[in-house]
Automatic annotation (TrEMBL):
The keyword Protein biosynthesis does not apply. Its EC number is 5.3.1.9. It is an enzyme of class 5 (isomerase). Belongs to the GPI family. Pfam families: PGI. GO terms for biological process: gluconeogenesis; glucose 6-phosphate metabolic process; glycolytic process. This is Glucose-6-phosphate isomerase. InterPro entries: G6P_Isomerase, G6P_Isomerase_C, Phosphoglucose_isomerase_CS, SIS_dom_sf, SIS_PGI_1, SIS_PGI_2. Keywords: Cytoplasm, Gluconeogenesis, Glycolysis, Isomerase. Signal peptide: none annotated. The lineage of its organism: Bacteria, Bacillati, Bacillota, Clostridia, Lachnospirales. The gene is pgi. HAMAP family: G6P_isomerase.
Amino acid sequence: MITWNNLDKLTSYQELEKTESVDLAAVMAGENGAERVKNYSVPMAEGLAYNYAAKKVDDTVLAALEKLAEEAQLTEKFEALYNGEVVNTGEKRLVLHHMTRGQLGDAVEADGVDKRTFYVEQQKKIAEFANKVHAGEITNGAGEKFTTVVQIGIGGSDLGPRAMYLALENWAKKNDTFKMEAKFISNVDPDDAAAVLNSVDVAHSIFVLVSKSGTTLETLTNESFVKDALKNAGLDASKHMIAVTSETSPLAKSDDYLAAFFMDDYIGGRFSSTSAVGGAVLSLAFGPEVFAQFLDGAAAEDKLSLNKNIKENPEMLDALIGVYERNVLGYPSTAVLPYSQALSRFPAHLQQLDMESNGKSVNRFGEPVDYVTGPVIFGEPGTNGQHSFYQLLHQGTDIVPLQFVGFKNSQIGTDVVIQDSTSQQKLCANVAAQIVAFACGKEDENRNKNFEGGRPSSIIIGEQLTPASLGALLAHFENKIMFQGFLWNVNSFDQEGVQLGKVLAKRVLAHETDGALRVFSDLLNI
């Protein structure tokens, strides 16, 4: 039987608090450090590996984390989730994003249908539509092929799909699967939509409107912006737009769209990249086969998350170490640092994924918790970040745990040898150097040049960023965040924190304001 208890009520957590802190600089020095790097590694799917040698853990801490995983019933709670229990207690909903890429357990029926069948049917419909667009069977009003796809959405309808598109754009071009350029409109700031529309040929563009409810203010505003541009160009908007929405939304059966593809309430926006939300734009941009590879990679990583042995479950281990760093060592933030330009927007996606999921101060039952929960997430690609905020990471007063991602090979393959090494070798040398520099530091009599070290990091290493390895990488972080939510006993699958601002914004637009809200409205000339 599953029990949902606060973290600080678990006996194993109290034992974890009593473990002796690891001297990271000492254990990472010399040959001992070399052995740690070899041994503190967990294989992931699609040729990836999670290496935690530079984390402040040893066998004693790992044994305590293993006890915590067992007492917190992490495996059982994940099993309950993928078998269709109502894990989203805030909204009283199932959580089924894993089922968009495979079925981990029992068949799940909701709304009178088998949900795995439902998601597969939507993927097939998207694939058929995309193939017809690519073949010129679905065209614009003049019978000409579409060359660009533009996604209109915000939050999870933008951040994940945009990050995945950018991650695979150059891979697709190199591997001859690039079908259509993709653009994204998200911000209600009119400059966002105007800039995108000015950069594309609207006559040869197909627009994907993404809104589960069909009522999202920013998205509908941008849709009107796009429709106005199409009208001004003498084009029929209904020949240029498709919708990704729920079956019950006002968009579902509207004549304003060439087609509609469906999602449901059981997939939160930030977890929707493997659903129709990501499927439509990525299938149009790269072809359905590439999107299928992406799903396969995510499904393969999901299977690893089933393992009860934390040393063979990279997501669970990453989650446990993260909770240890947050709640025992007291580190308030985490930096995500991909040494891959293709992952330039991946930290932004993880920022939403993590902070919207676990940025909670009450437990699953609405009771305040007496411990810290989700960390602040930020990041940029290396080596750009090294010349930006690494100063604080190395010598600042706060210790910030680091999550590196690196690949042995570049996506495009174009490189040059300068000073006896390629650019890719220089990139990889930098990430290796940073891990050791953060962990071991450097003593110097000049205090301004002294590095204390002891700053923990992990790295996910892969051969190359491909659709399959990207899917595995995405699933790793989705499942890590899920396990951390279980440990903190929070509901990781609602996001009430985004609602209050929406309500007040509507009051401002309706001129129903008083006090400070009225004055700010006047200052902004609303």
